[in-house]
Structures are given as C-alpha cells and as structure tokens.
Fold this protein.
Amino acid sequence: MFGMGRAGGGPSLTWLVEGDEFEGPKMVRKDVQVAPDGKVHYFRVTPMVTQIHVRGMIPRQAEDGSWGATFILNEEGWRSILVTAAQDSGKLIRVYINGRPLEYQRVEKPSKDDHLIVIWSGITEAEMAQLKSKYKQAPAR
C-alpha cells in the first residue's frame, strides 16, 4: 500500500503522481477509489514528495471541520515539485497521510518560488497532533 506509516510512530506524508496502467505493476498501482472525474486512475509507486522533504508546516482548520496544512519543503522536495510540474503538468496527484488516502490535486506549475505544498482538508485531530509534534510550526503567511 502507498504511504504506510513509518517505524517510530512519525507521520507519513505522501504525494503520488498519476501514471498510466501500461507502465506496469512495479511502477504504478490502481487507486483504491474513484476520482471526482468518475474514473479510476493509476498512481506511480515512487512518491513525488514525502515527509522527509518537509521542514515545517502551517496548520489550519478546514471548512469541513477537519484539518489542512501548508507544508514548507526543503530544497530536494522543491526540486521534485519543479521537475514534476515540467514533466507531468495536468496530471492528478494523490495525497496520503499514514497510508490513508486524502484528496486529489492537479499538477500545476508553481506560481512562485515559495517551497510550499498544501493539503486542503481531511487531516484528523489525531493526525494533526502527530504532525504538530514532528514539524516546526511557522506563522501563517
């Protein structure tokens, strides 16, 4: 399964980019849910960004009562974002926390060089507590 929790109890964050089923089972896996477009998509096994790329976060309450957060990426994570934006523009991204699928996003070229990536909603109270204990919290921008 994608984005399984890490040993030691730390939070696992995973952003996976859409692939094609013809890339084969070692490269992509079929999503566990139907996307908002009504289709089942395949996502690459190798993540675009993970928790190892996160150096801080800005938590916020989402409109639906769950939590969202803006994550501040290190240089390696930001380079991955830029490469993905150049190669996979328009494809879907699947976001996971501790192996649980959250939301779909779309690959777009960043509008500025801010090293930020967002999870808009779906993070539980327990997951947010885990994230807050792991990552330095930055003031809202």
User: Anything to note?
Assistant: The first strand starts at residue 13 and ends at 19.
